[in-house]
Amino acid sequence: MKKHPLLFPLVVLLFCTAFTTSKKGSTTTCDIVNFYKAVEPEDRDTKVLTPSGDLEAVDLILVPTKPEIRTYKVMLSRKGSNLYKVDQANLYIETNYCVEFPSDKEVTLIVKSSYGVSKGSMEL
Fold it and tell me: How far is 84 from 33, CA to CA, in rounded Å?
């Protein structure tokens, strides 16, 4: 069997090219699970019982909301794992496996539905 010395480097190069993306001009899309508006608790001593049975203080109560179905251009702040706040608005967005944080750039927010598993997407 004849060996080809350039075959292995070529395969590695093709593999790396296929699984990397250029930052310039690339777009990441994240699915939106839900939209919320924030409500401050009436009493600062308000507590919440977590699914694991722990009693914890409450900063904000996130209540599901239904924004108008359309496309928005917004700036976001990351508030937690898969949780973003639309700057200058009382709107929070829960995403699903969104690993990229949109810092200091405009994001396209696409609201497609008020119901279902995916309510829209964010293009970062």
Answer: 12
